[in-house]
Design goal:
Length: 400
């Protein structure tokens, strides 16, 4: 398929006109937020938006129903969240959230500032489609399977595999060269793109990028699978401090909770699984964070049914939506119709992975394990890997 139009990814300076009002997406390279930045986002969500910060599957955030775009961009620029007017939408960089603190072969986050700066320093790279995704995996395999366009995957402490179109290119680069090679690959993609938004859409794109780079692939190829290993709960860091992994209901973080997280005054990472990690805590403060924020709705329990459920915007946010899928998904969780992954589905309307059934009412949807609720067939935001689709139809829902 050849694209005939430019991508329409929203940013801060180019809002998306959603059915419920203007939507702004704020790029967070590596998912990182300083506490003061989260505070600014929380205030912006409360005073200029709908009161929530939405976490995206690329570790970015977005605000809905933005009432004053100029005031929003001014606040974000003042907090360092809009460092470039020209390149804001191309700063799509995800990195292993726990990298540099817990496990991993190398520190993927150490590459993020240089990659971000390199993108912003190259005027031509502002032309990258907003869909292009850079992935930095520290070797644990949580990021390379996300289907990015250009990335690196640590093979040991000082060597990375170059990842192109979500696969191992066979090229190995040193840590010192990793950022420059990714930037060169981004230029090569632009040479070849001819209007396409993703590297995988370019005919023979990976081979042609490798030719332009002039690098020789070796014989070894790593295999990358989709990971859903969300960091949740108490996580001991390698340096003796503690990280806390937390999920939020359907990836929507209320501004009030965000303000409490900001008050902890520690770096925060937004993950590609629409969760967050609060880092570098001593044990006693970490215990207090859980004690205060769990009752407010932050999820620190790895067995919570909320971890199994994702949903698109649905009504009223999307004009294509046939129903309010987020309300229906919430009702399913709260009424116990989201079953654990291993529990057989033996109630009316239940479905396991592999089955396909139609139900006339959302109340009849009972599904075990990971599930994604969509307001129409486009299934926006569907996670990668094994997931049961719950898709709104004219007559109810189709499951499977
Ligand atoms: S899946 Fe359909 S209803 Fe949901 S956000 Fe996408 S286009 Fe809208």
């Amino acid at each position: 398929m050849t694209r005939t139009n430019a991508d329409s990814c929203p940013g801060v300076l180019r809002l998306h006109q959603a059915a419920d009002g203007p939507l702004a997406r704020i790029r967070l390279p590596g998912g990182r937020l300083e506490p003061g930045q989260l505070q600014v986002l929380a205030e912006a969500a409360a005073e200029l938006g709908d009161g929530n910060i939405e976490l995206t599957s690329r570790g970015n955030v977005q605000l809905r129903q933005v009432r004053d775009a100029a005031a929003l961009s001014e606040r974000l620029a003042g907090a360092g969240l809009l460092p470039s007017d020209t390149h804001e939408r191309v700063r799509n960089i995800v990195a292993s959230p726990l990298s540099g603190r817990i496990g991993g072969l190398a520190d993927a986050h150490a590459l993020v500032p240089a990659l971000d700066a390199g993108l912003r320093a190259a005027p031509r790279l502002a032309e990258l489609p907003g869909r292009v995704l850079f992935t930095l995996d520290d070797g644990r395999g949580d990021i390379s399977g996300l289907g990015g366009d250009i990335g690196v995957h640590a093979t040991d402490t000082a060597e990375f595999a170059l990842v192109l179109a979500g696969g191992d290119s066979g090229i190995r680069v040193s840590a010192a060269d990793a950022v420059q090679v990714m930037l060169a690959a981004a230029h090569a993609f632009l040479d070849l793109a001819a209007g396409q938004w993703r590297l995988r859409e370019v005919a023979d794109g990976v081979r042609r990028v490798i030719d332009i780079l002039g690098l020789a692939p070796g014989p070894e190829r790593l295999e990358f699978g989709a990971s859903h290993d969300i960091p949740i709960g108490w996580l001991d860091q390698d340096n003796g401090l503690v990280s806390l992994g937390a999920a939020v209901r359907l990836g929507s973080l209320p501004a009030r909770i965000a303000e409490f997280i900001a008050a902890v005054e520690r770096p925060i990472f937004i993950t590609p699984w629409r969760s967050l990690v609060i880092t570098d805590l001593d044990e006693w403060p970490a215990e207090q964070v859980v004690r205060v924020l769990a009752p407010m709705g932050l999820i620190f329990d790895a067995n919570s049914p909320w971890l199994q459920v994702s949903a698109c915007a649905g009504r009223p946010g999307c004009a294509k939506a046939l129903t309010d899928v987020r309300a229906d998904a919430t009702a399913a969780v709260e009424s116990g119709r989201v079953l654990p992954p291993t529990e057989p589905s033996d109630t009316s309307g239940a479905a396991d992975l592999g089955a396909t059934i139609e139900v006339h009412s959302a109340d009849d949807v009972t599904v075990a394990g990971r599930q994604h609720w969509s307001g129409c067939e486009r299934r926006c935001g569907r996670p990668r890997g094994p997931v049961t689709d719950i898709v709104a139809t004219e007559n109810g829902y189709r499951i499977g």
